[in-house]
Amino acid sequence: MTTDKPPTTSALWDDPVAVVRLGADQALRYAEAIDQREAAPTAQALAALTQFDERLPTGATSPLEALAKLEAVGAPATMGSTGPNYFGFVNGATYPVALAASMVVNAWDQNAALPVMSPVSAKILEVTQSWLVDLLGFPPQTDVTFGTGATMANASCLAAARDHLAGTVGYDVQALGLYGAPQIQVVVGAGAHSTLRKSLGLVGLGRERVIEVPCDDQGAMRADALPDLSAADGPILACAQAGEVNTGAFDPFDALADWVTERNGWLHVDGAFGMWALADPSRADLVQGLTRADSVATDAHKWLNVSYDSGISFVTRAGALRRTFAAVAAYLPPEDGFEAMHHTPQSSQRARQVEVWAVLRTLGRSGVQEMVTQACDAAQLIADRIEQAGCTILNDVVLNQVLVRYRDGETTEALIDAIQADRRVWCGPTQWRGETAMRISVSSWKTTLEHAEHAAEVIVESMARATQRPR
Ligand SMILES: Cc1ncc(COP(=O)(O)O)c(C=O)c1O
Predict the structure, then answer these.
(1) Measured from the CA of 90, which atom of ligand 1 is nearest?
(2) pTM for the model
(3) Mean pLDDT by 10 residues, the chain (471 residues)
(4) Is the dihedral of CA 115, 117, 120, 124 positive or negative?
(5) Which domains does the chain have, with CATH numbers?
(6) Ligand 1: distance of its center to the CA of 196 in Å?
(7) Is the minimum distance from the CB of 41 to ligand 1 under 6 angstroms?
(8) SS3 (DSSP) at 92
(9) Hey, whose CA ends up nearest to atom 15 of ligand 1?
């Protein structure tokens, strides 16, 4: 049928399967091509993004037009973070089974808030919770919930900690808010991630009103520098970290857990990526005492390589999440198994657990361990190669993070510029001890030792260009 008139909205959906198939085919073409692409888009692809600057159509348009635009203009401008050569921030890739499961979950479009709304989501949640608790070695009563990322997982855990601690001195934060609430003594390491402080701010404990514990040269909290607090000063919330974002360093969890237990406090750990070291017995010394924490925040979109967004909260104090997040409404059914909406800040929610389940079901215990080992070995290989070529490795490479300086801050900036202009691999900057350093994070399941060799070669070639660059 040809007509000059725009289609009516109902006519757009005459063949809904064709629309979805087109999108699925497009997604597959993208996934197939990504390994052959550079790790970053070309300048032309970025310039073409202005093609999205259109007026909102006054009437209906074909859904095929929207899809065509995503393929022609959107896809070329993506970062190659699902390939093997992207080492920026701490951004994971996506296992094929995670991508496939996410497509299925999107088709299901379940509201995972309550078992009655989605029995299958509730069942898979229950299984995923028990697998994670078992795999990582948390106590059996641990509550596990899903949200958007490590930031919101931190916020969820900290909200539960706040309410529990205030409750120990007879104060009900949920009922009364923080007006007149008891002062909670919040202890954080000087190397805490910025989003941990953001989460503290979000739950009303303050980004700045914290007692900061000095760190060692790797950014790990010094157990010998913990403050001299007595319970009389107010309940204690200690926030530790598994995996410093530059160095991958781990705080001394056993010492912290002892310190907190003596003071009847709450130990929270931000383990956004580092928590996954629990799955690798050869790294047991790094995570010693981590599962003694009252709460741990992590995510699955970094190292477990599921697609965004997927945060996970572990709270070992049974009932604490429910105390903070339960909602009451006349239309809600009586308690019926583990109800996600009564344990998380969100009500309606995507069944994020399905992707995590699919990855765990596919990798098994040994596969998760291999995922950690492979990334750590690749990080060590890159560090060794570029150190031999003249870079300084600023951290002890204990995990998947490599912190690099080439001569000085300025030359390091030139190196990062050269790597980013080359586009075969992608690494970004950070500040370390007041000067620019380069961060390499190996978080993609696709990065093998061959890719690590290749990345090191590109970095070494870029070192030559960085020193030739006119200043
Ligand atoms: C240690 C740490 N905590 C928290 C976060 C925030 O994670 P998300 O972006 O998933 O909220 C990150 C991100 O890199 C991190 O490395």
Answers:
(1) 14
(2) 0.96
(3) 62 84 96 96 98 97 95 98 98 98 98 97 98 98 98 98 97 97 97 98 98 98 94 89 98 98 97 98 97 98 98 96 91 84 98 98 98 98 98 98 98 98 98 97 98 98 89 55
(4) negative
(5) 99-359 (3.40.640.10), 365-468 (3.90.1150.10)
(6) 8
(7) no
(8) coil
(9) 272
